[in-house]
Amino acid sequence: MSFYILVPIESLPAISSQPLSSESSILTYEAEFINEVLNSSNIILSDHLLIECQADLFQLLEQQQQISSSSILTDRRWRLQLFIGYYTFIHSHIDFLFDMDAFTDKLFRFILNTLDFNTLIRSNINLLNESSLSKTNNNTKNFDQNEYHSVYKHLKSDVFYEIEQIIKLFTLSHEKFINYLFEQINQKKIIDENNQKIFYLLSIIFKEKHFNNFEEYQLLLSLLSQLICDDDYRKQTKKRKKNHLKKGIELKLIKEPISNRNLTIYFLLQSIRTITCIDQVEYLIDYIPLLLLCHSSKYTIIHQTSLLCLTSISNNLSSFLVSQSEYIIDSSLKKLETSSYDGYFILIEFIRLGNTQVINLPIMTHVIEQLLLDLSCLPQIESIELTFQFLNVFCQQVLDIVDKKKLKSTSISQQTKSLIDFTLNLQQQYTPENSSNEEINNNNNNDNDDDNEKKSDEHPWHKMLVSIVDVFQHFISHSNNHIRSYVLDAFPSLAHLLSTIDENLFLPLVHKLWPGLIHRLYDIDFNIRIRCLTTIQCLCNICSDFVDRRIRQDILPILIQHLENNRSISSSNKLEYRYMKCLLTNIGSILNAITVNINDIEKLVLILFQYLQVEGLALNAYEQLILLTEKYSDIIWLKLILHDENEYRKGYFDKMKVYKPEPMLTIDPKWKSNLLVCLNKC
Question: Is this prediction's pTM over 0.85?
Answer without folding.
Answer: no
